[in-house]
């Protein structure tokens, strides 16, 4: 019953669907794209990027809903349209994942020696030897 009151104040279905998909699908898309496009990505770095991407998406979406009536006095990040949540969380996941993957490669010697299966990369990134 309480959920009905919360749902009534949330807005249209399209807005809520895009908000939820932006928060969830953006980091997952960033994880996939980084894995396909960046051959030095590793699991620990990308897991960190995924968690940070989810956290940023939740922070901005909740903050945007809480401060929706105080547009003039809040940060510009809360005025971001819900249509941009997916792109922003995808980009955040990719950038944080790449940086953390490189840090993990510097710290962990066994990560430096790993060979990437060329079939897991995008076709234009594969080695010509195959």
Rg measurement, Å: 19 Å
**How much helix, percentage-wise, in residues?**
55-70%
Residue share in β-strands: under 5%
Structural class: mainly alpha
Order of helices and strands: HHHHH
- Main pleated sheet: none
Count of runs of 4 or more consecutive helical residues:
5
Distance between the termini: 60 Å
Shape: elongated
Low-confidence stretches: none
Short overview:
The chain is elongated, with a radius of gyration of 19 Å. 64% of the residues lie in helices and 0% in strands. It has five helices and no strands.
Task: Provide key terms for this protein.
elongated, 130 residues, 64% helix
What does this structure look like?
The protein is mainly alpha-helical and 130 residues long. It is 64% helix and 0% strand. Helix 2 runs antiparallel to helix 3 (43-66), helix 2 runs parallel beside helix 4 (85-107) and helix 3 runs antiparallel to helix 4 (85-107). The longest helix is centred in the N-terminal third of the chain and has 25 residues, at 13-37.
């Amino acid at each position: 019953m309480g959920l009905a009151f919360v749902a009534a104040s949330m807005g249209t279905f399209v807005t809520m669907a895009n908000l939820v998909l932006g928060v969830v699908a953006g980091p997952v898309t960033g994880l996939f794209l980084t894995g396909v496009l960046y051959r030095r990505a590793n699991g620990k770095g990308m897991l960190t990027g995924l968690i940070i991407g989810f956290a940023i998406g939740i922070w901005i979406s909740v903050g945007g809903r809480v401060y929706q009536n105080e547009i003039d006095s809040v940060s510009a990040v809360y005025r971001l349209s819900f249509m941009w949540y997916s792109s922003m969380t995808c980009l955040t996941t990719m950038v944080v994942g790449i940086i953390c993957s490189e840090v993990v490669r510097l710290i962990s010697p066994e990560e430096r020696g790993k060979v990437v299966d060329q079939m897991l990369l995008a076709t234009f990134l594969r080695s010509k030897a195959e």
